[in-house]
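Aim 2 progress update. The chain analyzed this quarter is reproduced below.
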Amino acid sequence: MKITLYGKKGHAYSVAYRNFLKSTEIPFVYKDVLEDAEANKHTKELYDGAIEYPTLFIDDEVYLTPTSETFNKVMKDLNLRG
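Predicted structure tokens:
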């Protein structure tokens, strides 16, 4: 399973989702959309020119600005526990 999270330093959901993923001990990649040029460009492509966050990628699935409810459901479906 490949998990990537795009977020922004200090953004509440970005921090919460990143901390949860850290607690699972499952490898994941975190990219700050304001510091990583590639993530910034990709985010603009996903959101029609806007910079939005967080964005969650799990294998081939993309979750655009997932709510806490969506994030929790995805984690539960993957049997990931913090």
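Helices lie at 12-24, 37-46, 68-77. The chain has a mean pLDDT of 96. These observations will guide the mutagenesis experiments scheduled for the next reporting period.
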